[in-house]
Specification:
The complex is a heterodimer of chains A (288) and B (234). Chain A is α+β, with helices and mostly antiparallel strands and 288 residues long. Chain A is built from six helices and 13 strands. In chain A, a hairpin with a 5-residue loop joins β9 (198-201) and β10. Classes of the chains: A alpha+beta (288), B alpha+beta (234). Chains A and B meet through α3, α4 and α6 of A and β5, α2 and α3 of B.
Amino acid sequence: MSERYDEADGAAERVLADVGAARADARAQGSLASDWMPYLPVAETPFLPDDVDPGSLTWAETVAPGGYTHLRVARGTRIRFDDPTGDACAHLLLFNALEPGERLNVADTQKIPWQAYLGEGHPLLSGDGRVLATITTDNSGHHDAFCGTSSDAWNVRRYGDAAPEGPSPSGHALFVLGGAKHGLASRDLPPSISLFQGVRVGDDGGFLWEGSSGPGGAVELRAELALIVLVANVPHPLDPRHDYVSGPLRVHAWRDRVTDPTDGLFSRSPELRRAYLNTIAYAEVAGQ
Amino acid sequence: MSSDEAMMITTTVPARPVYAPGSPLDWGTPLVGGAIVRDERVAPRAPWSAIIAAGDVLTIVDVGGNQSADCLIFDSHDTGERYSVPDTLTWQGNAYVREGTVLRSNLGGALMTVVANEVERQDTIGGACSKESNTLRYGHHTAYQHACRENFLSEAARYGMGARDLVSNLNWFMNVPVESDGALGIVDGMSAPGRRVALRADRDVLVIVSNCPQMNNPCNDFNCTPLRMIVTRA
């Protein structure tokens, strides 16, 4: 850090021996920008998604490679993930914000739609027979619900290190940090899904690496309940590249609405229709 | 009047479906050698649990054939470390469980290893049935029926655990293929009466099993039968 400011100041060393000098020095940094940061006020994001009213925007951020973010979003929030370089991998966990024991259930998310591969229209289901979020938009199609995220043991074996502060953070380590900021511990973390790096299952059950669909991948979710969203942006555990390669991940959120009977999605299948009915009834009986 | 007769009551609760009279049952034997240190029968639709010491082997016998044994595994000394579907699958690079599969934890560690297996492939994708998910899969008329999640919750509660401790599980003797277009579902099983799987504990583990009560899909061959759980020590 000091090296950077030395350059900025053109000074060999910074003498900050009194509070006034330290305060002035700290405040002088406030206008700096980095390539990965939250944008506040949110309407000033440099990456406003097309067709989004800046007035409805509620969150805007670029997550660093090997970084994480965590959002608590209102029911009816639209959340957009962008992979500008083709090297992001957004590992996701969703929790009912009011009752976090209700959370993403990957088995039900694959079993109930009779479909293992995630894509547009796929519901992200809890273990309580409700839709936490719906994938409303997907131009990538390269995702995975089998392999989860990397553990510390996996990344130590793969890259030599897994610590959040190191060169190759594991997804689990980042989920632990994000979860802790919402009162959640490791035992609250179920299997996760990941966006932007695809895996397919071969005839013998073997995993086939599909990887990215290329730069410009975008996925939007609609929060059907108030949610805690944990996002770890780390390489997919089966990424075959020798090095730890992760790209920036953009996250934007804005006020939208929940899926209702006027949506084609609502009645796309009998299972989905009952899932949305359960979700709406749960929210309404609780006065949400 | 014997005490059994005294306990014969009538009840107005809805039917608790169990296997048809005359169903073939094969109670089997341990799949590996060693002294038997535990040998228990699990009634149809009931939960079961045991702590298995490191090195011991648990043989699960599919007594009636194609009876799903939904299974969770915890480190018995730290239940925050527990069975993880994605870690198990990622480390072996394959979506199905077979002989040799190491059943890994959420931290990537080995909990148990499949040391012998008499079914072509075992499932760990399909998850457990629940009263809640039954309403999506079959309709709200099934909401009153018993389900594996209920068994898991009541058995986990005996160890101070709750819903947060329940994650995607193993389904011994259940068949869930993934087809080339991603289609996935529970189909007719590949097991038979007396088929077995044997799991070696790689550390001290708590194993919780739900003898699946589902009657709306083929996971139990529409005939809920018992399981036999045998622990052997070399």
